[in-house]
Please model this.
Amino acid sequence: MGTVSVFLMKLRKKNYNNAMKVTFTFEDGLIQSYPIKQKSFTIGRSNKCHVCLNSSELSREHCKVDIVGQLIYLTDLDSSNGVYINNVQLKPHVKTKYSTNQQLSMGDCYVVFDLSSDELTRSMVNIRPLLENENQTQLLKLKKNQKQILQQKKEKFSSTMLSLIAWAILLIGTFFLARTAFST
Model:
């Protein structure tokens, strides 16, 4: 009998519960899993959230998850650092369909949903094709992408502020020229 057959036989003998789960893998290597007990739940730092995570990169109420059958819908609750599917940031307050074969990240963590109710299937799914260092590389790329987006926002803000200052100087100069012209 092969190693895989023995592994499968051992899995079948164990008594498993049928809970679905969500797993968070943080940048520092910490991994946290939570059973999914509700079809709709929130994720964030706040104790009011169904899934409360201690991460400064997450907002108090970061996102909402709705599960309909085997479909997952995510809603960014106007979080500071965003919710990303395949490195594309979700628009705040827009319910977006998510597939478990897509890469999901928020703040400083990757998120994996396991909706299979069969522990044997779930055990096989949890054998990840990516090595740990590849996950770290992906996290670093994601972090770099988020920093680039933030930098672009800062540059746009700076450009807008410079334009406003230039207009203000122009208006003040025009006011003083007009005042000088009328006073003489």
About this structure: The chain has three helices and eleven strands. The radius of gyration is 25 Å. Confidence is low (pLDDT under 50) at residues 1-17, 118-133. The first strand starts at residue 20 and ends at 26.
